[in-house]
Amino acid sequence: MADVDSTGDTGHKEIKVELGERSYAVRIGAGVRHGLAEVIAGLGARRAAVVSARPREWVPETGVPTLHVPARDGERDKTLATVAELCSRFASFGLTRSDVVVSCGGGTTTDSVGLAAALYHRGVSVVHLPTSLLAQVDASVGGKTAVNLPEGKNLVGAYWQPRAVLCDTDYLRTLPRRELVNGLGEIARCHFIGAGDLRGLPLAEQIAANVALKASVVAADERDAGLRHLLNYGHTLGHALERATGYRLRHGECVAVGTVFAGRLAGELGRIPSARVAEHLDVVRHYGLPTALPEGPSVAELISLMRLDKKAVDGLAFVLDGPRGAELVSGVPQDVVARTLAGMPRADH
Ligand code: GLY
Fold this sequence. Notes:
By secondary structure, the chain is an alpha/beta fold.
């Protein structure tokens, strides 16, 4: 895992994503957003375009002349039209390649603003101020940016690493419970891919452990050629559930159920003992996350959706725990998947 440095007596944590000359720091803690002006000065930017899905007062001083563009979180606005609109606003403002774009909002905002920054003038610096737990532990770190097409989620995107990420835990104070749960789903799955047992730690430490894990995975496999698949633990069923429920269930809720399923499937395949299967349920339950399949989607429907997964080049593929730790397992027999799904409890959620 990447190192977590504590900075001075502020209690802030700093994690470096090591990508050579594109390396950057992720700062975590209460009030870290106020370091934005210093970050921008360090980049030498003379102007900033701040795209924010949060109230104006949530955005700290930039220290340079700034264009403020309001945005809206949510999959509905994660479109090429939004990216085009943002780029037009940047151009009208006169933003140059040596200036900076700042995103402030949840993962859908950091995704679409990140893509606009990747495309504008063939790439302008971007700094993320993620305001949701999901964006702090996952979406804003690692350089994946994307928007949706009517045909599916995240189908158009680019790898564009930010120059810094400021995960201000003050932003999380007013987060609705369901939004918090969305991020806790990603934290729970980290238990099985190398972060260790984070239960009982303060939230900032859990965020830092997740970011440190992600930083080390991204440093080793920035473009998802292999190791980065690990971050998709619980996501094969998770993505299928999102689609099957028409996105009624949140991403983190679906990943939580997908994590319980991944444990059961690994058990069915004889990869892990029953105690480890039970640990999946315990961890997901600990975070107050759903553990049962929702009423509605049939086993057959979920299997056909899981066949569309990007990792599934050879039949059904899952990231599964095993004697060597978690790894991508391809060609999982359909009858075992069907039996494991059929054995999952169903809930009314
Ligand atoms: N959210 C998975 C990844 O960044 O690869």
